[in-house]
Write a structure and sequence with these properties.
With 690 residues, the chain is an alpha+beta fold.
Length: 690
């Protein structure tokens, strides 16, 4: 394959259009070159043959006394011409990454170290001289800059986000080293790590702390040899720390693969801790997942489902092995474990594995026998009563099952048995409180969450500030966690900010709503349906409904209840007007009603909320006889309006708009159905002016 062929093949592999704007690593190694050449030529290529072919192609554009001058000129011309087509420098950048991907150990180097410029010169055919090639320190960083511009500005992130970053200790080669630390599959491991430590989108954690936590997480899991090599390398460790922080900056709460598809965590399930074992998917609340395609079967995901039991592809599923299932819109993943912490799950009806034990909750523990004694010691250190080994439960050979583990405190524990300690490896986090479900940290005023500070291996006092006001020094008592009740310290609505050392958290408190006799809110409509569902208070005049469960403070008992959505109600061609709710009176008087949700609801996604429409009816300058909700240009539904005292009492500005006579005729002459058969004649008489 010639240079342009390699350049196009590499660009198509790494920078294809993807599901989400996620960092892309140009992580090229010899195995990938062989795979790409095989796919391109349809002939199986060996590693040496693929590397030789790539070497010849690169040397055709990088050569001479100014080896990078030609590709620099092509890059400038490409950008001046509007960046049409494939960037011409992808293969050259890949060539600068390839030497960093090889664990070279030349004479005089200690284990884990590698040389870079010597193998780079060998690859490029630059045998005269040593050290950094001419022009490398200027042109190669410029090419990485062109790639960044192309991905972010020209392609707007649809082909991924740039990930190459310089580093203070590796000024010239840091760009290429940052691409050699992780491959696509490693990126998923980083996402699982961030999920395990409780990271949230927008978090800020120092590089040193992230790296230390990641190294501990690696002890428990089984990452790729590439990650282990990076942790062992003095050159790659600082680069890895920067990459981890970069991944945290782009973390949206879901581990994702190199194509941007999310990874949904799987849990091991069991009736009592032994055979047979199954799996269940834990559906993240912010993941809009309607179905999964497994082995050709479509599995529907119920709306709002938190757990979804699944049939494993192998009915003889055993602990200790990894499981990965492709489901088109997502990938399901059960990591390999030497220890499973099991918790009773009412939604699944079984014991399910969890990431860490929880204080005050009974657990069962399935652990490899080699770690059984260590696990038992940790459970006692976490304050549990003596545990036992159930004899009537069949477990796999080489495994031990414990029951009766109820921790009362956490402890500083490392390694395989770490998840037995509550809040193992967790960052400081918000817990509890009365949260408004909407994908954001929003709580009702008076019901703020607690701030939980996990135990740490050091004895340094923690620095905690709330809205810029520092708290007295907080130190752990023994190995227990520290819980700070924010409800006792934060008493105003609005956004609040917390800093725990270098970690920043935020949450919002909103005005509390008055409770009344409860009716269940309507089920939220599908995401594609942008119309709110607002039924009548009196679908049958002889059977009034109870008030709605949540009302704005000071309002009367509810007349209507429904579900606000973030998207505005669309215009309807029937009325040629925006909105969907109308009040109709005598003498062809009509008004469009616009009940306004509180501002804090308008910023959230799909939050159930009851609205009191009665004040709007009171404020109308006429008596409303009918209420109409338009659901499409051919469909509208009418209800009899509740009887209220009318009069211009100053409704909120913009809450209703009078319609013209022509609008009234279009409104009433459409395809309108009534809520009850008995009302049909009344509606006919009303529109006829009787």
């Amino acid at each position: 394959m010639d240079y342009d062929g390699w350049n196009r093949t590499l660009a198509e592999h790494f920078f294809a259009i993807r599901e989400a704007a996620t960092p892309v690593y140009l992580s090229v190694d010899d195995a990938l070159l062989a795979d790409l050449l095989t796919r391109r030529t349809k002939i199986v290529a060996t590693l040496p043959a693929a590397t030789d072919d790539f070497r010849v192609a690169i040397r055709s554009v990088v050569f001479g006394r100014d080896p990078f001058g030609g590709i620099a000129s092509r890059a400038r011309q490409w950008r001046r011409n509007g960046a049409t087509g494939t960037p011409p420098f992808i293969a050259v950048l890949a060539a600068t990454v390839l030497p960093a991907s090889r664990p070279n150990r030349s004479e005089g180097n200690v284990a884990g170290r590698f040389s870079y410029y010597r193998p780079l010169r060998e690859l490029l055919g630059l045998h005269e001289g040593s050290g950094i090639p001419d022009g490398y320190d200027v042109i190669v960083p410029t090419l990485w800059g062109h790639l960044k511009w192309w991905l972010t500005e020209h392609e707007q992130g649809r082909r991924g986000l740039p990930s190459a970053i310089p580093h203070p200790t590796q000024v010239n080669i840091g760009w290429s080293l940052s691409q050699a630390v992780l491959v696509g599959s490693d990126r998923v491991q980083v996402g699982l790590f961030l999920s395990a430590i409780g990271a949230q989108p927008g978090d800020s954690v120092p590089e040193a702390e992230l790296l230390a936590r990641f190294q501990e997480w690696v002890r428990l899991n089984r990452p790729s040899p590439r990650i282990q090599r990076a942790l062992a390398s003095p050159e790659l460790r600082p680069i890895l720390a920067s990459v981890l922080q970069q991944e945290l900056a782009h973390y949206d709460g879901l581990p994702r693969n190199s194509a941007g598809l999310p990874y949904v965590p799987l849990s091991l399930t069991t009736d009592a801790g032994g055979f047979p074992y199954g799996i269940a998917a834990r559906i993240p609340s912010h993941l809009r997942l309607e179905s999964l395609s497994l082995n050709g079967d479509i599995v529907r995901v119920p709306s709002g489902a938190e757990w979804l039991p699944l049939t494993p592809p192998d009915q003889k599923l055993t602990p200790g092995s990894a499981l990965e299932l492709a489901a088109e819109t997502a990938t399901l993943m059960l990591p390999a474990r030497d220890l499973y912490v099991l918790q009773a799950n009412d939604l699944v009806g079984k014991w399910t594995s969890v990431s860490a034990a929880e204080i005050g909750v009974p657990h069962r523990v399935l652990v490899r026998t080699a770690f059984a004694a260590q696990a038992e010691a940790v459970m006692l250190a976490c304050g549990s009563d003596a545990v036992r080994q159930p004899r009537r439960v069949q477990v796999p050979p080489g495994w031990t099952l414990f029951s009766g583990y109820t921790p009362t405190q956490t402890a500083t524990v490392q390694g395989v048995v770490g998840p037995l300690a509550p809040l193992h490896q967790q960052l400081a986090r918000l817990s509890g409180g009365l949260r408004i479900d909407g994908g954001k940290q929003t709580y009702l005023l008076g019901y703020a969450p607690d701030l939980v500070l996990p135990a740490t291996p050091d004895d340094h006092p923690r620095t905690v500030t709330i809205d810029g006001v520092p708290l007295p020094p907080v130190s752990p008592v023994s190995t227990d966690t520290i819980t700070i009740r924010l409800a006792d310290r934060v008493h105003s609505a609005g956004e609040h900010y917390i800093e725990v050392g270098n970690r920043k958290l935020s949450f919002t408190l909103v005005e509390r709503y008055r409770e009344s006799a409860a009716l269940p809110l309507l089920a939220l409509p599908p995401r594609s349906d942008k119309l709110a569902t607002i039924p009548s208070r009196v679908p049958n005049s002889a059977s009034p409904l109870a008030p709605a469960p949540w009302l704005p403070p000071g309002h009367l008992s509810g007349s209507f209840f429904g579900s606000y959505q973030r998207d505005p109600l669309p215009s309807t061609s029937l009325l040629r007007l925006g909105g969907s709710i109308y009040a109709l009176g005598k003498n062809r008087l009509a008004a469009q009603l616009v009940p306004e949700a509180p501002a804090w609801i308008a910023t959230m996604d799909h939050v159930p909320h009851a609205i009191d429409i009665e004040p709007l009816l009171v404020a109308l300058p006429f008596q409303a006889l009918w209420l109409l909700r338009v659901t499409s240009s051919q469909n509208a539904r009418a209800w009899r309006a509740p009887i209220v005292q009318t009069g211009p009492y100053g409704a909120p500005s913009g809450s209703w708009t009078l319609l013209s006579q022509a609008d009234w005729r279009r409104l009433a002459s459409g395809n309108v159905t009534t809520t009850a058969v008995a009302c049909a004649q009344d509606w006919t008489d009303y529109t006829a002016g009787k």
